[in-house]
Amino acid sequence: xQEQKIVIDGKETNYIARDDGTIWxxxxxxxxxxxxARNEYLSVQLTxxxxxxxxxxxxxxxxxxxxxxxxxxxxxxxxxxxLNNCADNLQWVTTQENNQVENRKKMExxxxxxxxxxxQLDNNWKPLDDIDSNYYICSDGRLWNNKTKKFPCGSLRxxxxxxxxxxxxxxxxxxxxxxxxGQIPKGYVIDHIDGVxxxxxxxxxxxxxxxxNMYNAMANGHKGQRGVKQVDSNNNIIQxxxxxxxxxxxxxxxxxxxxxxxxxxxxxxxxxxxxxxxEHPLTAGNSLQPY
Length: 291
Known about the structure:
about 290 residues, alpha+beta, Homing Intron 3 (I-Ppo) Encoded Endonuclease, Chain A, four-stranded antiparallel β-sheet, 21 strands
């Protein structure tokens, strides 16, 4: 396996890239799982001299390990899987070549056989009686329409599989959990254990608090997360919030006021308030308290 220190804008960072498509934090010796952008490509958020930079993993890996003698601008996934960022699966192509591949994929999706008149339901399927009794959800995340005898393929949004049932969108992982495990308590979310948002098998899902979900996202280098922690005078964490907005609502103060409190390091409501460090969300000895 090859690996190389990541350099951004001429500055060496605390991260390394490996030709298997993974990004590692040298300080924590942890892999950054990244997050799926709206275009369904994985990205990571790296901290360089105190500034956060969001970078697409496939472009980063290709720029380091894939030759580009013609200075092409598009990185293509050879197997069509945008989550497979191994260097040997990436190649630099022209815009025209990339468009040809994408158009072929669209046609393949259109003619994919979804109709199966001989399919039989078993104990792995649950009816969606509260939505439409014609639909059944499987414990592996598939959907079945018993009236049309088809498997709706759904669509992806930010990496999550969603199904349109009677003109309303439903997330596959939510359907699986609620029909096999029960309702999701307030303040909790369904997490994908392996980090793959389209792996909706029941065995890959778990119930965690919103605070735990935010912590996992920060630790894995996800973008768009600016957590806030409430600490006592000894810097012990009392509780942690997913965002500035959540913390401000808890305190019943304007968001801008909380930002000012954090910047000025003022005590407020008998506590101190700090941003969660994306490099080290929690320090040793501190416990995460769901709010």
